[in-house]
Amino acid sequence: MSSFATILHKDLRLELRGGQSTITLNILSLLILTVLTFALDAPSRSSLLAAGALWVAMIFAGLAGATQAMVSEWENECIRCLLLSPADRGAIYAAKLVASFIFMTVAQITSLFLMVFFFDLNFDMRIVRLAPVLMMGAMGFASLTTLLAAIQAQIKTGELLLPLLTVPVFIPALISGVKATQAALAGLPFAGFAQWLKILGACDLLFLAGGYLLFEQVVSED
Amino acid sequence: MDNLSYLFAAYSIIFAAVALYVIFLWRRQTLLDSRLRSLETQLSEIRDGLAKS
Amino acid sequence: MKNRAGQNSIGPNWASWFGLLTVLLVSWALFMVFVYVPTEAEQGIVQRIFYFHVPCAWVAFAAFGLVAIAGFFYLRFGQKIWDDLARAAAETGMLFCSLVLITGSLWARPIWGTWWTWDSRLTTTLVLWLLYAAYLMLRAMAEELPQVGRLAAVVGIVAAADIPVIVISVRLWRTIHPAVIITRQGRHGLEDPRMIATLLVAFAAVTVLWIWLLMLRFSILRTARRLTELGGGLAELRARLSEQEPKRGRQILDLQSR
């Protein structure tokens, strides 16, 4: 537990001391939402498009963030020191996961505000009801990318590998997440999209368990 | 019922794809053959060298 | 390890027998599909695609299961043989998965009037194809790394564990695919017993075809790995000989030729 706290503390401190990933993620989200607003001709008050745009921004910003975090870890040989330390592999995984979850959440809050502006929606209860959906999505995505970015970081020519690996696996979470977001934006109560939340939760559990159990296999050295 | 071309296309694609994969396997096999042969010549070279010394 | 001198011959004999069996079964299945089975009343002649389409789908899913199982055994026991099996299964599975998608849209065009719809089974198969593609891309990019087997096994296991959630979520999303095997009323979609017989023969033929390709690919991968090991051994032998250790070198040579 203490190694978990130490690693998480280190990552957050690095970020606060002028780390770039939060800023990059936020600007990237802004860019993606801008592009989508133009591409979809959005200002027509369509909450369907808004839900999709939000998730596209989340996926691509999340991919970029995960790549950056893990690749720097490998480039500085930092991961080797971590692995030589007595820290449990599970604790390393959990710390990395929580750090990227926090960065993603920050970026999501930004893109949520941007979405309301760009797609001409209102700030009301519907936006509040989105919070658990988006957090569950970020949780699943972070647990998946933390595992898969550790794979990508070991492959020199594999810059584009992470989206290839992550997106197909994330599709069930994406389907249920977008559906739940659309329902929430349409003003339905939680009960109206409970089945989508259940699937999203199942995905989260699956990705978390898979990442926690398999992370050791990914980082261990022969 | 002029859909014969779809049926024909489907089955030709199936067997064309399988044939292409078999050709790919066959090329891999010949590659292995040549690797084995070069290893054999290397081994016999070493053996000859040892016999002389 | 088997006897190196005897059994390691390239192009094993079982393969030709199994290949003969494959050719016979596939010809039989083709005969049944094109000559024996009656034409289906509603869909007409295109329905005959179905007899190879469905077995290909089964093989694609089975191959994917094998990738995950072999990957699990590789992580558990660490023998390279499991890694080679997983790789062969992924390649052959990719082949059949592509065939499912292609034959499916060739059937859908005249029957549904469209090449592609976002129906649940089509979408699931497409996601499966994407997962295969990711797995094979990873293998291709990481080919030189010693840990490639472990990384690929992790991806294979995560992907296979993901399949139930994919199926559930996509099914909830939408479906219009015909439920051919058992319809909602509980009767077979295939009225004629000759259709069922044809489907069964096609299942056997496609499965045997897959196993044949799988075994061929697997044996090639095994042989390649052994040749690499032998090459490493030879290089080591040369190094020792050049270090003026003729005695030790001769011992190694004797060991190898035995």
Describe this structure in words.
The complex is a heterotrimer of chains A (222), B (53) and C (258). Chain A has 222 residues and is mainly alpha-helical. Chain A has one domain. Chain A is built from eight helices and no strands. In chain A, helix 3 runs antiparallel to helix 5, helix 5 crosses helix 8 and helix 6 packs parallel to helix 8. Chain B has a domain at 19-53. Helix content of chain B is 92%, strand content 0%. Chain B is built from one helix and no strands. In chain B, 9% of the residues are buried. Chain C has one domain. Mean pLDDT of chain C is 82; it is low at 1-10 and 182-188. Chain A binds chain C through residues 144, 147-148, 151, 154-155, 157-158, 161, 164-165, 167-169, 171-173, 175-176, 179, 195-196, 199, 202-203, 206-207, 210, 214, 217-218, 220-222, and chain C through 75, 127, 130-131, 133-134, 137-138, 141-142, 145-147, 150-151, 153-155, 157-159, 161-162, 165-166, 168-170, 172-173.
Short structural description:
The complex is a heterotrimer of chains A (222), B (53) and C (258). With 222 residues, chain A is an all-alpha fold.
Quick tags:
heterotrimer; A: 222 residues; mainly alpha; 8 helices; B: 53 residues; 1 helix; 92% helix; 0% strand
**DSSP strand count of chain B:** 0
The structure class of chain B reads mainly alpha
Give the distance, in angstroms, between the N- and C-terminal Cα atoms of chain B: 81 Å
Taking all residues together, what is the mean pLDDT of chain B?
A: 86
| Number of helical elements of chain C | 8
**In this structure, how is the largest beta sheet of chain B organized?**
none
Beta-strand content bin of chain C: under 5%
Percent strand of chain B: under 5%
Uncertain spans of chain C, ≥5 residues at pLDDT below 50?
Answer: 1-10, 182-188
Distance between the termini of chain C: 14 Å
The radius of gyration over CA of chain B amounts to 23 Å
Instruction: Work out the helicity level of chain C.
Output: over 70%
- Unreliable sequence segments of chain B: none
